[in-house]
Design a protein that fits this description.
This protein has 156 residues and is of the alpha+beta class. Helices cover 16% and strands 31% of the residues. The chain is built from 2 helices and 10 strands, in the order E-E-E-H-E-E-E-E-E-E-E-H. The protein has helices at residues 33-39, 137-154; strands at residues 7-10, 17-20, 26-30, 44-50, 54-56, 62-66, 73-78, 84-89, 97-101, 116-118. The protein has a 7-stranded mixed sheet with strand order 6-7-8-9-4-3-10. Strands 1-2-5 form a 3-stranded antiparallel sheet, with no helix packed on it. Strand 8 (84-89) and strand 9 (97-101) form a beta hairpin. The longest helix is centred in the C-terminal third of the chain and has 18 residues, at 137-154.
């Protein structure tokens, strides 16, 4: 995969559109209860990018909301269909990131292979895919962060 590429994405109905100009950092599956409710699915298949590489064409097409304090992650739904569009993640001492449901990418094959499962203790069903599975808040957040940081450091 090239160091940089251009692609796009959109919510399920196409109202909330965005363009992407940089490679994804990491892809994973989140089984937390908030992701299950937000995505109306057993887990979220998400791909993470640097925020600087994702441009939301019209901010008014997405309504952002923090579901938990502190509001490091703001989840955005399309203002028209109400489905997940993009999420903004701001972790102290880390670059700003954007989390995109992998299905919202115009070409999901551009997403990297999934790296891990997080909040696996909240799973609705067992998944036998050979990926590492992390349970609980601290373990899940730590290993997800490590996976993203490894990619960030490898691109320097």
């Amino acid at each position: 995969m090239a160091d940089s590429f251009n692609t796009s994405g959109q919510c399920q109905c196409g109202h909330a559109r965005f363009s992407i100009s940089g490679r994804p950092l990491v892809r994973g599956f989140c089984h937390c209860l908030i992701c299950q409710a937000f995505n109306q699915a057993a887990f979220a298949d998400i791909t993470v990018f640097y925020a600087r590489d994702v441009h939301l064409h019209d901010e008014s097409t997405v309504a952002f909301r923090a579901h938990q304090q502190p509001p490091m992650l703001k989840r955005g739904c399309c203002t028209q269909c109400g489905k997940p569009a993009i999420e903004r993640l701001n972790i102290p001492l880390m670059p700003a990131l954007v989390v995109i449901p992998t299905a919202n990418l115009s070409d999901p094959s551009l997403a990297p292979q999934p790296a891990l499962h997080i909040f696996y203790n909240r799973r609705q069903a067992d998944v036998d895919d050979g990926l590492p599975k992390y349970c609980g808040y601290l373990s899940s957040q730590t290993h997800f962060g490590i996976a993203a940081i490894k990619v960030m450091l490898s691109r320097r």
